[in-house]
Amino acid sequence: MRTRLSKSAFWSRAAVVCTLLLAGAPAAGNADPVSAAEATSAGQAPLPCAEAPSQSPSGRTPAPTPAAATQVSTIGQAYTCILDHYFARDRLNHRDLLAAAFSGLTVELARQGLDRSDAMMPPLEGDRAADWAAFAAVYERITAALPADAARRQAVAAATINTMVGNLRDNHVRWARIAPPPGEPREMYGLGIATSYTPYHAAHAPQRARAPLHITAVTGGPAAELRLRPGDVIQSVNGAPLFAGGILSTGALGMLHPNSAADDPVRLSLRRPSTGRTWTATLKPGWFTPTARNVTPTLLGGDIAAIRMGAFTPGVADEVLAAVADLGELADLRGVVLDLRGNTGGSPAEVARLLGAFAHGKITGYNCDPGGTCTAHRTDDTVPLIKLPLAVLTDDLCASACDHFTGAVKHHKLGPVIGTRTSGMVSGVAYPYVLDDGSTLRLPTHYGLGPNREIVNGIGVPPDHVVPRTAADLSTGRDPAMAKALALVGKVS
Which end of the chain is more exposed for a tag (fewer CB within 10 A), N or C? Predict the structure, then answer.
């Protein structure tokens, strides 16, 4: 599901980092500038990506709307960006990237019934630029013979670049091509549901998926109109089961999280645990204004500030602290419970600021360059301490900045962590690079470590108290993790 907070914040729930703009390079002498496509056709190296100097990891520049087809020049720019900016670039073999890209090309050709006898990888000599030129020449020869159908051509290009990017096996590397609807931008596109597992998690940690797959939140749109509820179990999608032999079907899962306004209606077979009811519902994905807020405060037990937070978006730390202060006007607070279940991550600056309300002078993690030199992330000590006990609720969808926040809370014993292990999708802060078709390639230029210099990526942060929330719990309104937090808050974990 895609999200946007407003016109001024075109994309919101992702690693909130600086946007890097494509820099054009003029040709020598008095000639006109050479476009990326012309450079590739002329046998030149793809144009490089360049950082926008006015941005920082705590800011955001809206990416331009994709307006052009993905061409060989776009693939070349992604190839160059990876080799120039990815934190593990010194360990990369450029031939592996090109081989992965060619594999993606041929798989998509075969899927469309367009495979060719001459679709063979060219010999690679070990020179980065020369090998790219050889790849590009073969790619252009193959794609020149494709049908004129723009959608089919785009699918071939997308498969090529996605397979190359996927070869990195990094949970913070992503290529995205997103076009907004005409007219006034809406905030979300999709079916209006969040699920207990997502395509993003399935791509990087499929072994963690557990049946049944269920709705964890209804965010609005088609799902709200049909009165679907948290806890509803999705048994099949368009007749395809979500699990077969205990293995998650990524194809079926992907249909629950469409990424294009052209997606067809989706037929769901559902079961409601609280009543045993089973039924079928057809949802047509579309743009809608979400009903769920990023920060939802509730006063529980008469004196506990329970704050649910969906993402570490810009300004969220101050919003959370303001919500705590507002609840403090209603009662003499005994503690704070931060519910980070389903939190999609975001800005490291917001992590530092929110942690700064509970502790000062603490290292929250490390940002390390390719040579192993690490810079500490620290609490933002300009934030006044609120001097209230803390408990944190997590699950296996708590990702990226949420991993970071939870790891710091656990390491520094700022309060009990309750729920299930976090996602461990925290390879490093990802910086967006805008390519010549308007698409965005996100790459971490540094890798992340936890506050004890431990690897969290791929592992996650375990809770102090393992208390999962099941589909039946959601369906019946039970929340054993929150109940545990209310019992523990104010005590030593």
Answer: C
